[in-house]
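Exercise 7.
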Amino acid sequence: MKFEVFITQREWMEVLHYRILNHEQVRKIYGSVLSKLDNKTKKIIRSLLENIKREDPNMFSHSVDEVLKAI
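Solution. The predicted structure, written as tokens, is:
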């Protein structure tokens, strides 16, 4: 039997953002990079970050807020 795992684009985005949010130096650089993006992209990423914060505020509230302040 063949076992296949499919992960959506949104899930990959979440995985990458969890990694970014857990690394202080990368998080600071990421905020700076995001500030230079177009508004449509910022809106998508802002929504993703807010969802992450809502799902686990104790773990990610501070790091999400740090990135959002930069953008």
